[in-house]
């Protein structure tokens, strides 16, 4: 068991390995316009809001599509890919199910849009879902995590967030959460109220308090 009031989960790269799908869609878009898109460009977008990513892509590729049209393009391709296969990150689904089994409330806090989050949320026991298309200020602002905690009826400062990116970890820390970081494609700096682990595989609800020396 854990003493946290709730656990708040990021999606992309934390629960599901969607980053390669995003990157493939970005490369495809660039190729359609005869432009070059690099892995370094793709790394710049990890953890960003979709609109911010759309703005970056539009400027980098110098194409006529609006940021909103770019986002629609990417979301359509990601949704189609997720309908075919979901690549779960090691230990994530098992920890979610274990937390649910001992009655710990959980929420999904993602900057992906509802169309992408819904298929994942539908098969996991989340009491609240906050997506990028329902927040005015996305990660790294604290708003998404504050909204999720509010929807669960708990204080964000009593919650543990699980993230994989700098942007997401900054958002959760700004909301007052402890943050368990499982870096995937990008490095995340250490700081107060933040613990980095290489994988969630093997972690149980009983392990969470010990990571942050909670008594």
Spell out the blueprint of helices and strands.
Blueprint: E1 6-9, H1 19-32, H2 39-44, H3 50-61, H4 67-84, H5 92-101, E2 106-109, H6 114-121, E3 128-130, H7 143-152, E4 159-163, H8 166-175, E5 178-181, E6 194-196, H9 205-211
Helix pairs in contact: 1-4, 3-4
Describe the model:
The chain has helices spanning 19-32, 39-44, 50-61, 67-84, 92-101, 114-121, 143-152, 166-175, 205-211; strands at 6-9, 106-109, 128-130, 159-163, 178-181, 194-196. The mean pLDDT is 94. The chain has a 6-stranded parallel β-sheet with strand order 3-2-1-4-5-6, with helices on both faces. The chain folds into 2 domains: 6-17 and 88-211, HAD superfamily/HAD-like (Rossmann fold), CATH 3.40.50.1000; 19-84, DNA polymerase, domain 1. Helix 6 (114-121) links the parallel strand 2 (106-109) and strand 3. The longest helix is centred in the middle third of the chain and has 18 residues, at 67-84. The chain has 215 residues and is an alpha/beta fold. Helix 3 crosses helix 4.
